[in-house]
Input
Amino acid sequence: MFSNQQIDTLPRHHTIKFQPLADNAIWHVQINWLLFYIPLMTVIVAVRYFNQPFADAVSAPWLLLLPVLVVLSMLYNLYSVRVKGIALREHDIAYKRGLIWQQVTLLPISRVQHTEIHRGPIERKLGLATLRLYSAGGMSADLHISGLTDKQCNDIRQFVQSYGYDNHAAVDELVDE
Amino acid sequence: MNNNDWQRVSPWALLYFIVHFAIRFVKDGLLNLLPILVIFVTQVEQKWFWGQVAASIAIVMLVVYAFAYYRNFSYRISSENEILLNKGVFKKERLTLKFARVQNVNIAEPFYFQPVNLVNCIFDAAGSSAQEAVIPGVKLSYAEHVREQVMAFKAQLQQSDTPEKAEHAAQPSAQHTLTLSNAEIAKFGLMSNMAILALAALAPFMNAIFDYLETSLIARLEAMFNEQAAFVGSAAALAVVTVIVVIVLCAVLLSVTMALIRFFNFHLYFQDNKFKRVAGLFERQQLSISSEKIQSVQIKQNIIARLLKRYTLICPQVSSGNTAPGVAAHKNKQTLVMPVLTAAHVQQVCRWLFPWFINLNELNFIKPERALLYKNTVLYVFLPSVISVVVIDQLFETLSMLWGLLPASILMAAVFLRYQKTGMALYQHEGRSFAVFRTGMIGTQYRLFEIYKAQSATTISTYLMRKSGLKSLYIQLASGSVSMPYLKSVDAEQLIDFVLYEIESEPRNWF
Output
């Protein structure tokens, strides 16, 4: 028989202890950025070398701006990965992200429609995976968590799939990871 | 009615297939034929002759394909509670749809079936048109029987899940009805943005239209106005204004026509927690929705609706995952739209759904903190004004800068009105908790939902917001999302905890 008594204290989500992402997560982010910046810088330098009007328009000091941007981006990545965290509770998953706009999303497991695990070549090399959890009605995944280990992703997926059957299983084990 | 023989649809269903494939050809095929169309327009001489030849071939192919499709189409309502369809011409496919997966069974009566008293029986699998199964050209009594059969099976399934529901199901409730006159429906044409959409659809051809109008109409109008001795002012300007007014009137007329086509003779019935809506000019669409499937209720009143003292009420079901929620709500055929309601109608319909429903203005809405007003003033009033003043200063005299104050004051009014309208309220009734979110500027939009139907919740805060102890709240629903900016952190966190508690402790199905 379901009861719905007046409650005085609710479980409070802001006391959740978030687990940081995997150690290699920062490398994944940095390599992804470098894979964007290095070809861009190469193209700009090459165009400047072969194209005189472009070389006249963009003087050498301007070119230093790009490495500065790369360093700043990498610093930003370092901190943004540090603030990310995931927590699995008995009935929901919490994910914290964002350096400027800090977001905490809580997705009840009973609302998860389907899960996806993605592993790109860099992720495979680093032993990482991306977990996507979808609920109903959203345009894209409600939770898109990259930087977890492959085992963490599979364990979470298993936990989500078995929720409702034995929703108490494996929670402690996962949180300790 | 169950049998294990495959059944053919009536020969009249051929009409449905022809219309269906013609619409699909226009929707999907024409875009693919665009390169050929360009070659045809630029390269081919005797366009009229070859155009007629191409159109004749296309029509013949369409009819032949529709006939072949009709010949191959068969259906079966199996004794295992499944709907089976055999279809396809080049690629034969069998569609199996279990009764348990059917969300709704809708009955549509296209105008071409009216003389022969046939209807289309539409099985909606997941609230998206992609997963529809249609049996065209069946008798109304048969379609109704199948619908009852499917719904009885689903009710039985639900009762075995939750036996306490059986007691309620055994007592049929009184039927409520709501009928909208076609004059009211025409008002929806004025209220809706269909007129703007119609104008937007004409946008690519605007240049050609204006060129044509300039030579044919504006010149004549100008000459006519010039002849009027009493007329003072620029005849050319007046001619242009006249043409613009005519275009806008045409767009409005088009919008009214579209509203009438969609909602003609609108009848709404509510009984045993189920809505049934019948409407449509060329195709009488019967839409049935169980109130449990409704994810939220939107009550909208835009500026024109406000003048007309009318509201639009939208009850979306689960929207398809690949579509933007707002778009899905309107495009989804399974969304129940009540286009033009008076305030009394809104109360009436909402009370069918929520017996507690009171005038929403009486609710105690929580407002965002004042910091939101300051932030929006800086972002949307101060910054654009400074930039425009700097630009105007470069281009014009200092006196012209004063004109910059006019848009600034309009922006300020807009920011203030939006701030005033934004709010949220909670309501509890017999152990069930509801949330109402209000947004708007001149018009107002309410979104009302039972909290346990929410899908996920997020708090968002910037550095400055955290310093001021503020957070914004964002709740994802199965049909769109709601947000409440700049709440006190403590309140936002408590709200999220409450939403999660409602979702996680409520054993009822959310869909």
About this structure: Chain B touches chain A at residues 295, 318-319, 321-325, 431, 454-463, 466, 476-481, 493-494, 496-498, 500-501, 503-505, 507, 510-511 (CB under 8 Å).
